[in-house]
């Protein structure tokens, strides 16, 4: 274990539980009759809805148009008719407009041979245009529009392109399976991105709990003409976060409030790289993604390639349903995911997993008082002091919390996970950020 | 021996005298001039240090009035009376309406009467609850009962009953408006102090939807408008409002309201008294 790279401050070791699905091949999910496609699936302003009730849509048709610099296009996952446009709650608890599409008519792409595009003649701008058109966002969970991320601002140079194959969230195996099964496509995707970004070095970081993925990527890297460094990393949460990954792989630290390009780095998740490959080579917009459906409460955990807008209930049903009444159904990973109460909530671009957790897996113990043990301070990967932040927020002193770095918190959940008093620290941080935003709007 | 005593006695007296004169001179020469009016204004302000004016406490506000020319009408607990007295000191004139307004919760939904979508066991803070699916009640306009208003109230005028409903004691309320600012669903609203009834519902959903979510919600049936023509009832956005400028009799509307959501503010006070009484008894035991 010695000599392996990792990030320096903080971090926790939650039980991995990836064995439930890490040997299960990715299979295409059953296509249900109704899809609910939210207009806000990305970071930034919601997309502008282009369809109205009664419209016919085809597979991959543009139905939501990017409405700003940081925004993204949204495409219809299936052919059909727009039945309704309504407000729904997204898995993260936010309200969003959504288009309800009833399956109808013929698929243009599904089950048909697709021509492959020779993209090598395309310029950088053309490639960025295709990525923007296809509505690709960061599939690691933050859903930051990919075309904005790959656009290196003038005067800046990308020295490093770091591919994120860490998947540090427990339970999730979507990226892991992707690296095993589609290594060649990922490599092609990396080549496309490196044409845009023009980095000096390209590296992929993978935690050593996925030795088969490391091997697969190394094997695939031998076949290509550009040098790809496969960097095995020590297992530690939250290594899959952009900032921690860069610290681990390149040794560089992203300054507070800055983007990785400030230190000459561009980071992209393997899922995103695969989506870039599909968009550029197969001319396919982002209408499906790999989702791990797992947890102790699921009968047959699986890795499914599901279309955006599929109701979660349909995926759960495909995995044999619940083996017992789950204590919680979480969308995303167990550390950063959100608990949902309505199984008709749709899958969005940022959904990496669906977990049905049993009462054994969820510790629903009562909250007690803070004993100032300092474990959260040790665990925080950003070097913050969660207990003091929480105390400020609890007393409504949001400005003081901002002064000691509230906005650097990225809600990774390490502090809440380690807290022996079960204090809802992350919810506190979210509350603090919300109140700061509210204050700024008022002022 | 005597000389020694005399010498030390005289030298200390002399030293003390000199230093005393020095201090007196310094006090005159280096004096920091403070406007007397600050003290006068501060003595008139209520001294609750509630922060409703936006300044750090009453002394902060008094300084701001005198030094920065802050508005004289910011002290809501003091109301018209204080504003006029302050204006007298400052040699200005002010016009403040003398209707005292108090805060009231416009919702009575409990676990028994309203539908809930999930069990919430996070932070007891309404704004935190609001981030998650806009709260655990099916009705998105109602009181979340997280108690953020209770926490910010500087005079302890807000309390809960056994069913977790939140009541404001209008006699204790100093109209600082902190609870109204903090409330994310805007279910805490201003009503005049002498209002006899309030419509205890905030739902702007259509009648049928409100009925589905809650048995004590206003279903916008407009019976109140018809029964008490001069009572000032107006149904807007599927919710009844009371225009308190209309002084007509409202009892007919109250009696005929099918959802029984028009409630007396006296009831509100009686209930909170009862709660405080039980709390007291429990404390004593």
Looking at this protein, list some descriptive labels:
heterodimer; A: 443 residues; alpha/beta; Ubiquitin-like (UB roll); Rossmann fold; six-stranded mixed β-sheet; four-stranded antiparallel β-sheet; 13 helices; 19% strand; globular; B: 285 residues; alpha+beta; two-stranded antiparallel sheet; two-stranded antiparallel ribbon; 11 helices; 11% strand
Percent in strands of chain A: 15-25%
Uncertain runs of chain A with pLDDT below 50, 5 residues or more?
Answer: none
Proportion of residues in β-strands of chain B = 5-15%
Largest interface, chains and sizes? A-B, 16 and 15 residues
Based on the structure given, which CATH architecture of the largest domain in chain A is correct? 3-Layer(aba) Sandwich
Helical content of chain B (DSSP H or I, runs of 4+):
40-55%
What is the general shape of chain B? elongated
Distance between the termini of chain B: 73 Å
Number of helices of chain A: 13
Order of neighbouring strands in the sheet with most strands of chain B = 1-4
Number of DSSP-assigned strands of chain B = 8
Secondary-structure-derived class of chain B: alpha+beta
- Could you say which overall geometry of chain A the principal axes of the C-alpha atoms support? globular
The description of the largest β-sheet of chain A is:
6 strands, mixed
Order of helices and strands of chain A: EEEEEEEEHHEHHEHEHEHEEHEEEHHHHH
The total beta strand count of chain A reads: 17
Q: What is the helical fraction of chain A, as a range of percent? A: 25-40%
Structural class of chain A: alpha/beta
Provide a descriptive summary of the structure in words:
The complex is a heterodimer of chains A (443) and B (285). Chain A has 443 residues and is of the alpha/beta class. Chain A has three domains: 26-112 and 285-361, Ubiquitin-like (UB roll); 115-281, NADH-ubiquinone oxidoreductase 51kDa subunit (Rossmann fold), CATH 3.40.50; 375-442, no CATH class. Chain A is 28% helix and 19% strand. Chain A contains 13 helices and 17 strands. Chain A has helices at residues 124-133, 146-150, 174-181, 183-197, 211-223, 242-250, 270-281, 312-318, 375-379, 386-394, 398-403, 414-418, 425-442, and strands at 26-28, 34-38, 48-49, 56-57, 62-65, 74-75, 80-89, 95-103, 160-164, 201-207, 229-233, 265-269, 288-294, 302-307, 328-331, 338-340, 353-357. In chain A, the strands form four sheets. A six-stranded mixed β-sheet of chain A has the order 1-14-13-17-15-16. In chain A, helix 1 (124-133) packs across helix 4 (183-197) and helix 3 packs parallel to helix 5. The longest helix of chain A is centred in the C-terminal third of the chain and has 18 residues, at 425-442. The radius of gyration of chain A is 21 Å and the shape is globular. In chain B, helix 2 (36-44) crosses helix 3 and helix 2 runs antiparallel to helix 4 (79-90). Chain B contains eleven helices and eight strands. In chain B, the strands form four sheets. Chain B has a two-stranded antiparallel sheet with strand order 1-4. In chain B, strands 2-3 form a two-stranded antiparallel sheet. A two-stranded antiparallel sheet of chain B has the order 5-8. Chain B is α+β, with helices and mostly antiparallel strands and 285 residues long. The longest helix of chain B has 28 residues, at 2-29. Chains A and B meet through helix 13 of A and helix 5 of B.
